[in-house]
Amino acid sequence: MADTTPNGPQGAGAVQFMMTNKLDTAMWLSRLFTVYCSALFVLPLLGLHEAASFYQRALLANALTSALRLHQRLPHFQLSRAFLAQALLEDSCHYLLYSLIFVNSYPVTMSIFPVLLFSLLHAATYTKKVLDARGSNSLPLLRSVLDKLSANQQNILKFIACNEIFLMPATVFMLFSGQGSLLQPFIYYRFLTLRYSSRRNPYCRLWCPKTVIIVTPKSMITDHHDRYSNNENI
C-alpha cells in the first residue's frame, strides 16, 4: 500500500527552518553575498574597476556578518570596559575589526582570502542544515561538494592563519609604498594578537612559531642553539 502521509512540498521544511532561525539565515545570506563579491574581486570578470568595488562590498558584508554574530554571542550591549573586554574575546569582534582595517585601504588579494574562506566554510555549514530540513536525500551533488569542503576544513583554517600572519609584513610594505595608512600596521598587529589568543581557533597560535622558524635564516637558529648549549654547560 502506498504511503499517503502528507509531507507537503519538499522545500516547506527548509523555509520553515530558515524562518525559525532568522538571525542565522540573515548571516547565511550575508556570507553568500560575501563569497560572491570576493570571487568577483579575485576573478575580475566584470573589469578591474568593478573588482575594486566588489572588494569593498565583500568587506562590508563581512563586517555586517561579524556584527550580527557578535550580537548573537553578546546580545545585551553595555557601555563598559567589562563588556568591551568580553567582546574582544570573540572571533566575530576580531573579524569586524579586520573588515574595518581594510575596507578603505588599497585592494589587496591577500586580505580578501580570510573573508572569502571563512564565509565559505560557515555558509557551507548552514547550507547543510537547510538541506537536512529540506530532506535527507535532497540535492546529493551539492551535498557531496559540501562534504568535500568540510573534509578540508582544517587545511583551509591553516591556510587562513598563515595568510593572516604574512599579511602583517604586507601592511608595512603597503605603508612604505604609499598604499596604506600609518596606523594600519599597528591596528593590524593588535588584530593579530587577538587572533593569537583566540579561544575558538588555535591555528594562528600554532602557526606563529612555525612562521618565525621558516622566515629566520638557518645560521641564526644554529647560532642561537649553540649559545643556549654553551649556557647550559656553564
From TrEMBL:
Membrane topology: Multi-pass membrane protein
Record InterPro entries: PER33/POM33_regulator, TMEM33/Pom33
UniProt cross-references to Pfam families, sorted A to Z: TMEM33_Pom33
GO cellular component: membrane
Ranges that cross the membrane: 28-48, 95-121, 165-189
UniProt-annotated location(s): Membrane
Keywords attached to this entry: Membrane, Transmembrane, Transmembrane helix
Similarity section: Belongs to the PER33/POM33 family.
Gene: TMEM33
Keyword Transmembrane: yes
Predominant cellular place of this UniProt entry's protein: membrane
Superkingdom per UniProt: Eukaryota
UniProt protein name: Transmembrane protein 33
